[in-house]
Amino acid sequence: MKQYPLILSLLFLLLPQLSFSAPVNDVTRFHTETIATGLGVPWGMSLLPNSTMLISQREARLTLLNLETNKLTNITGLPKVKVGGQGGLFDVALSPDYADSAWIYFSYNKDVDGQGATTLARAKLIDKKLQDWQDLIITQSRTSKKVHFGGRITFDFQGHVFLSIGDRGTRSNAQNLHNHAGSILRLNLDGTIPHDNPFVNDSTVLDEIWTYGHRNPQGLFFNKQTQQLWAIEHGPRGGDEINLINAANNYGWPTISYGMEYWGPIPVGKGKKREGMEQPVKYYIPSIAPSSLIQYSGAAFPEWTGNLFAGALTLQHLNKVTLDENNKAVDEERLLASLGRIRNIIESPEGWLYISTDNGQIIRIYPKAQ
Predict the structure, then answer these.
(1) What is the spatial order of strands in the sheet that 115-126 belongs to?
(2) Are 53 and 45 within 8 A, CB to CB?
C-alpha cells in the first residue's frame, strides 16, 4: 500500500508525455495491397531496377519478389547465419553505384566462436545466386546474448555506408568506445575506414565509430536532399527515440533516458538531460517499439513531404511524424493499426510505400485515383 503514492506520482509525471494523435486506419486516403504472404520475418527490403524486390528474412532466407506477377523466388548463396532470439539475417540494401558495381549490402548475425556479432557484408546477385560474398566488418560486438543487434544499413551517396549496432543487451557498451556495440559506424563502400571519421586520431576510440550512446537503433535513413542522417531506436519501457545523427555525438544511453526499468517504476539512468549528451527530436512514452525509418520525399503523396515514417512492433501501426523547419517534431499520426507488427518500410521511385509485417506479408501503399 505504501508504494501507491510513488506510483501515482510517477504516472502523473508521465501523463503530459502520453499525448498523440489517435490511431488512424483511413482507407479513404490511399490503397493498401498485399503483394506477398508466407514469408518469415521480412527484416529488410530493397528494390531492384527490373521491377523486383529483394526481401531478407530473419530466418536466414533471401527471396526475390516480382512486383508485376507477385511471384516469389528463393535466392541461394547466403553464408552461415546465426539465427536465434532477435538474431539472424537483417538488412539488405543496394549500393548507390549498383548500376556499375552490382554490389548488394547485407547485415547479419555471424557466429564467432559460438557467439554472435553484427556483421556488414556485400555480394552480387547472378542467376538467382549470391556470389563474391565479402564480410566487410565483423563488428566488435560479439556476445552470447541474443538481443539488440541493430543491423540497419544506409548510404550517404558520397562513398560511405552507415551501419547501426545495438548495445547487445549490455548497457555499459554504449558508452564504451573500445567496442562497436551501442554505436553507429561509418565505412567506405569497400569496408575500409574513412580518413575523416571523427575519432580516427583518437587511440581511445575505435576508428569506425561515427556516433555512440545508442540502445538498439533499428531504423537508419540518410536523406540525400538535406544531407541529414536520421535514426530511431528502441528504449526500454518507454523512451524510444528519433535522433538527428551528427558525427562524434553521444546520444546518452544509458546515462540519460526517457524510459523506465522493466522491473519497476524507476527511471533508467541519471536523469533525462546531461551536458554533452544529445536530446532526441522525439521520444515515445509508452514505447511503440520502432523497427525502421524513412523520411518521405516522393511525388505520390505531396502532403507527406518531409514527414518521418517508422514501423511499430509493439503498438502495431505505421507511425508518421511531422517536423517543422527546425526539425522539431510537431505532430504524430498512427496509421494502419490493423496490419500487425510493422517490421520495415521503404519508398519506391514512384513515391509509393512498401511495408513488411512480422506475419510474413509485403504490402504496397499507393494513392487513390483522383
Answers:
(1) 89-94, 104-112, 115-126, 129-138
(2) yes
Q: Which residue has the cell 506510483?
A: 7
Please give the domain boundaries of the chain with CATH numbers for all domains. Answer: 31-367 (2.120.10.30)
Residue tagged 563488428 (cell numbers): 139
End-to-end Cα, the chain, rounded Å: 60
Contact by Cβ (8 Å): 118, 163: yes
**What does residue 15 show for φ and ψ, rounded to 5 degrees?**
-55, -40
- What's the alpha-carbon Rg for the chain, to the nearest Å? 20
- pLDDT band of 27, cuts 50, 70, 90: low
Tens digit of pLDDT for each residue in 141-186?
999 999 999 999 999 999 999 999 999 999 999 999 999 999 999 9
% of the chain at pLDDT higher than 90: 91
Active site residues: 148
Closest CA to 330 of 48, 79, 19, 59: 19
